[in-house]
Design goal:
This protein has 20 helices and no strands. By secondary structure, it is mainly alpha-helical.
Amino acid sequence: MTAHAASSESAMPGYATRWKGLIFIGISLLVISLDNTILNIALPSLSNDLNANISDLQWIIDAYVLVFAALLLTMGAVSDRYGRKKSLQIGLVMFGIGSLGAALSETTTALIVSRGFLGIAGAFIMPSTLSLINVSFPLRERAQAIGIWSAIFGLGIAIGPVIGGLLLKLYSWHILFLINLPIIVIAIIGGQRFLAESKDETAPKLDIPGVIFSATGVFALVFAIIEAGVKGWGDPEVLGLFGIAFVLLAIFTVIEARTKEPMMPLYLFKNLSFSGASIAIAMVMFSLAGSMFFVSQYMQTILGYDTLTAGLGTLPVAIGLIIIAPSSAPISKRIGIKLTVAIGIGIAALALFFMGSTYKIDTPYITIAVGQLLLAAGMGLAMAPATNSIMSAIPANKSGIGSAMNDTTRELGTALGVAVLGTFMNSIYINGVQGSLKLIPGLPKELIEAISSSIQAAHAIAKLPEVPPLFGSIILTTANQSFVNGMTHAMLVGSVIMAASALFVLVTLPSRIQQPADEPEQVVELTGAAPAVGD
């Protein structure tokens, strides 16, 4: 490395303490990613304790997701303008307040409001974590740092059910929020000590029309996707929500194209290293969210695992991500980002095909674990290089908005995975249950409809004292087989979608990262991790 290059690196904000700072960035990120899945396993407890119905439970989960996704772009722009470290610290304090409020909630309304507040806090935190990495790590180290970031993000999602199951064995659901508080305190203290402030000194005033239409448009789009998974893609309300989202986002695009100081510079989408990798990230989350949605229910309801055992059953995903994601940097350096991401998504497609082909009513756990390990390997291989492609393709002063775009595509991919694959599963489950149970003489239509609502409802009804044992056995057998048929068919559909996504990456993602015009010294050969000039 030349003396000039070394001097340039040492001038980067937070360069001297970047690796120590990464520890506390990771702790901050872990809080966010855990919150995506840790609460799912507590839904039965919430239902009993708060007298929450199905609609209440859905809003407890969705309030966080909707607010979080809607505000990511706005908070990314805010962090660029006012300070990335400041945004992270403010977000952590807010997340602590929201967690305490959620833990103390005594009604479903209070918990839903607290979850929405947590979504605001999360939107402050997540873009700041990745943008701080982008401005404090030089290109030769950035791919490795982003690999660690990706592993932590995936780890939090994977171990959420494990931690949730363990805590629920010992305490009530309130502990799932209280556990955030000591972690947040550590993240705040460590971040204050080891992270340096950075911001875009030339940032324009906040684009208020852009903020309004981006937030409402993304909110409507994510809400439409979630509702489509529940009510069907042809439901009039769902179609109306998609129409509203299209109009709002179209207005946002027009505003950004015409304003002199846009919140989201549209020229970024012309860079395929940015836009192509963004779609790749969405598809990686599509496969993870869709499969985890099924496997958790499958292990608890069909195989009869308790919450802790089912949570432990997802550990292969965490193990695979911890091993593969940090290793993706040297792999992409050798074969290039395009091939690395495409192979990773291809492995995820293979994993879904394996799961769809082998999972049965009595699948041994070793088979389940193999499918999860394959999925984690594909995710880990694709996620970090794709993220690095996005962050290396944007100007450093736009790190916050670039990170926010990366995070938004993750949320859209997650929502799509559950909604699209869930639609296939539900359709086959309902047809299978209704087609078989209608043949049972004397079984009320209302009972069949209740059984069709979910596999959990079928198991509850089959065990009712007033249901004859023979009928109960038939209901259980029919519902279990219909669920497994729906799950495996959905996974096979998912494998086809992922295979097509791998081909899309091969066609669109450049082999060389297309660097911003104002950063010509950061030319990257194939990986985004090339040595600095003079190395």
